[in-house]
C-alpha cells in the first residue's frame, strides 16, 4: 500500500489496530509532564552530550553582503562547503 492510496479513514483504522500504541486519553494528556521535569538528570546529560556543535574559539560572524551572481555560482558549483571555501579565499586576500 503506497502513501497516496492511504485515506484518513484507513490511517485511523491502522492506528486503532496497533495494540502497542494506544491513543492517549484526555486524562493522560492532562497529567503529562515535560521530559526534563520528570527526568531532570537524564535531560541534563542529554543536553550536555547532544548539545550540538562545540563552541568555536574563533566564532564566525553573520553578515549580509551583495556579491556578483557569477562569484557565488562559481563557489556553489564546487559543492557543499562553498561558504567555508569562500571564507578561506577572503582570509588569504586579507593577508590572514
What attributes does this structure have?
6 helices; 96 residues; elongated
Describe the structure.
The chain is elongated and about 65 Å long. It has helices at residues 8-16, 26-31, 35-38, 40-49, 69-77, 82-93. 52% of the residues lie in helices and 0% in strands. The mean pLDDT is 88. The chain has one domain (8-51, 66-93).
Q: Helix tally?
A: 6
Mean pLDDT: 88
pLDDT < 50 stretches: none
The helix/strand order is HHHHHH
What count of domains describes the coordinates?
1
Estimated helix fraction? 40-55%
Could you describe the largest sheet, including whether it forms a barrel? Answer: none
Which value, in Å, is the CA radius of gyration? 25 Å
Short description:
This protein is mainly α and about 100 residues long.
Helix and strand layout, with pairings?
Blueprint lengths: L7 H9 L9 H6 L3 H4 L1 H10 L19 H9 L4 H12 L3
